[in-house]
Amino acid sequence: MMHYRAIWISDVHLGTSGCQANYLLDFLKHNEADKFYLVGDIIDGWRLKKSFYWPQAHNDVVQKLLRKARKGTEVIYVPGNHDESARQFFGMSFGDVKVVEEVIHTTLDGKKLWVTHGDLFDGVMQYAKWLAYVGDTLYSFILYINRYFNMLRVKMGLQYWSLSQYLKHQVKNAVSYIADFEHIMAREARLRGCDGVVCGHIHKAEIREIDGLLYCNDGDWVESLTALVETQNGELKIIHWPHIKGEPVETPEITFQPAIELLIKEAVL
């Protein structure tokens, strides 16, 4: 069991068939932290509005996070665009999980990191949201193919490999979009007087310096299967989890707590 000062995850997309919940459950089983940041798109309200999909593994992820909060981990939830319905609950707590608009994390060496999902600084989301919905539909289809592609790989004894991420990174426009987004987020962090930013949204894990600012993206749990961590020594690292280390994570059959159930209902409605 590894114990970190902080763990950041985002873009889990619970409620979709592309969500790699079993890998995330295994990660949660083997990793603890003083602070756990959920950096948006944890529950995919967009997809749930179209069709309800909620297998037991997705319920288990929610319960595992709630259990961490009950046992003393400070769990902070910063909603994104796919779970934007949770933004109406800023300042409230869901079973000891705090819901906030954004937050500042201070590293061991005193650096201030602005934590936000990132969609509010995405031009497509702000000025052509309809295009984002179209893109989401196409993206979901690619993830559908990716799911069965990796089922075949597992049967062949191979590790998880993201076909969808590979295709996305071969497209010149997508690469340009990612670069623009990264620079915008670094600029916004500077405007807030911070030393860097931690975000999600674009499903590309990264730690690098941009114009003197630290840019960190924790990736996702539909393609890259990654989390950002701060070690007890203050080092920031990307953890890649394309494997199941232990036995399948077993959690008791627990119904949703009222606040979580309300969030699911809001996502669907």
Care to describe what's here?
One of its GO terms (cellular component) is membrane. GO terms for molecular function: metal ion binding; UDP-2,3-diacylglucosamine hydrolase activity. The protein has 269 residues and is of the alpha/beta class. It has one domain: Purple Acid Phosphatase, chain A, domain 2 (4-Layer Sandwich), CATH 3.60.21. The strands form 2 sheets. A 7-stranded mixed beta sheet has the order 4-5-3-2-1-11-12. Helix 1 runs parallel beside helix 3.
Outline:
With 269 residues, the chain is an alpha/beta fold. It contains eight helices and twelve strands.
Q: Roughly how many Å is the radius of gyration?
A: 17 Å
Please list the strands of the largest sheet in the order they lie side by side: 4-5-3-2-1-11-12
- Tell me roughly what share of residues is in helical segments: 25-40%
Return the CATH architecture. 4-Layer Sandwich
Q: Can you say what the CATH homologous superfamily is? A: Metallo-dependent phosphatases
Distance between the termini: 39 Å
What CATH calls the topology is: Purple Acid Phosphatase, chain A, domain 2
- On the 0 to 100 scale, the average pLDDT is 83
So what's the CATH class?
A: Alpha Beta
The percentage of residues in β strands lies in 15-25%
Q: SSE string, helix = H, strand = E?
A: EHEHHEEEEEHHHHEEEEEH
Instruction: Characterize the biggest β-sheet.
Output: 7 strands, mixed
Q: What's the number of domains? A: 1
Overall spatial form: globular
Count of DSSP-assigned helices:
8
In terms of structural class, how would the helical and strand content be classed? alpha/beta
Q: Give start-end ranges of low-pLDDT stretches.
A: 123-135, 247-259
| Secondary structure: number of strands | 12
Write down the oligomeric state: single chain
GO biological process, one term: lipid A biosynthetic process
Keywords: Cell inner membrane, Cell membrane, Hydrolase, Manganese, Membrane, Metal-binding
InterPro entries: Calcineurin-like_PHP (IPR004843), LpxH-like (IPR043461), Metallo-depent_PP-like (IPR029052)
Domain Calcineurin-like phosphoesterase: 6-204
